[in-house]
Amino acid sequence: MNYNKKSVRDIDLQGKKVLLRCDFNVPLKGGVITSDKRIVAALPTIQYLLDQGCAVIACSHLGKPEPSFEKWSKKQAEKGKAPEELTEAKWQKSLDALRMEPVAARLSELLGKPVILAADVVGPDAQAKAAALKGGEIMLLQNTRFEKGETKNDPAFTEKLAALAGPDGVYVSDAFGAVHRAHASTAGAAAYLPAVSGFLIEKELGVMGKALADPDRPFVAILGGAKVSDKLNVINNLLEKVDTLIIGGGMAYTFLAAKGYSIGTSLLDGDKLDYCKDMMAKAEEKGVKLLLPVDTVVAASFPDPIDGPVTVETVASDAIPEDKMGLDIGEKTREIFAEAVKNARTVVWNGPMGVFENPTLAAGTIAVAKALAESDCISIVGGGDSAAACEQLGFADKITHISTGGGASLEFLEGKELPGVACLLDR
């Protein structure tokens, strides 16, 4: 994949009308934003465009609204909802809960200026407001997923969306968390407008692109999370690039089982045993050091609730009792993994080492985050749980780069072409 894409720095934007795709998919509780991190992350690009005298038409999805009543009813029925509950009023209420009003209000506060909110996405209100928008002003469209054509990248919808910026408009993509999806607002619009990245995507491509294409060595990758099947292509791709591959989390137990160890009731991807054997053989053939847990924190069962009290003990990874389940890496493993990080020049981390939501089972993830924070290496943390762990533990400011996209960063590590990046103009 070509990571060398044009950004807002590379083209003349003075006075242009800009369709800006942001990632405003913020968590909401009772209509109130519980974390504005994604809105804050978009501010540098938005402010830059406003300073260039651009008229900014921002758009984003929010949650997973179902724009069709028929499909909504079918999905609700599959979840066991009674027929009398499947009313158009209930469906409309589900859409209203994902309108962009809270985002527009918070963005306005952060920018210190009004954010004009459209009542629709490409309908009469959005068209009228976009046409009247002046340089230095910003408007926000309604949730792009209110339109059926968004996720289908429907050309008729995409053309209407791009037309809001006018014939001389520009498309700026700054939603890295959504670039792995070929939707109308994440990739399709680039067929109608010159397309460049904002500062967020520019940074993702610069930092992660260099790490994969030309890393400072030794290059260490740390993979965790639940299942091997979630990271099949990532493991295969990274073995072509890294000096050391560390595997922890639930996925480690399938590797341990592939070595012939008894793993008790630990998580097992039974149909991936041969794959794990192949990957261990590939590591040996490539001269890549593959590190697996040497000791494991076990319990009688998975904690319920997930953060509830749990009785644990630490055992050797080749001696997990038949009635016990591995839920975190042990102390010796933490030391081995931390040592590998200490000696590295570049580290990429994606996925926790255990059930980090539980304080008793968070030690492995904390150890990795701490080792990264204390290292002077280039440290890159994929989105999702690893990013959440670094933020919760207060290490975020000591990491070189925390990715803004979980699924996108995973596909990046796989070496996949990301539709929302491929569509941007090359430098």
Q: Termini distance?
A: 14 Å
- Sheet of most strands: 6 strands, parallel
In terms of DSSP E residues, the strand content is 5-15%
Highest-level CATH class of the largest domain: Alpha Beta
CATH superfamily of the largest domain: Phosphoglycerate kinase, N-terminal domain
According to CATH, the fold-level topology of the largest domain is Rossmann fold
State the assembly state of the protein chains.
single chain
How would you sum up the global shape?
globular
The CATH architecture of the largest domain can be given as 3-Layer(aba) Sandwich
Strand order in space, largest sheet: 5-6-4-1-7-8
Sheet/helix structural class: alpha/beta
CA gyration radius, whole angstroms: 23 Å
Number of domains: 2
Average of per-residue pLDDT values: 94
Fraction of helical residues:
25-40%
What does this structure look like?
The chain is α/β, with parallel strands linked by helices and 427 residues long. The chain has two domains: 8-63 and 98-202, Rossmann fold (3-Layer(aba) Sandwich), CATH 3.40.50; 215-414, 3-Layer(aba) Sandwich (Rossmann fold). It has 16 helices and 17 strands. It has helices spanning 37-51, 69-78, 88-96, 101-111, 124-132, 148-152, 155-163, 199-213, 232-238, 252-258, 273-286, 331-342, 363-374, 385-392, 406-414, 419-422; strands at residues 17-21, 28-29, 32-33, 55-59, 115-117, 138-140, 170-173, 195-197, 219-223, 244-247, 289-291, 295-299, 313-316, 325-329, 346-350, 378-381, 401-402. The strands form four sheets. A six-stranded parallel beta sheet has the order 5-6-4-1-7-8, sandwiched between helices. α14 links the parallel β16 (378-381) and β17. The protein is globular and about 70 Å long. It starts with 16 loop residues before the first strand and ends in a 5-residue tail after the last helix. The model has no long low-confidence stretch (mean pLDDT 94).
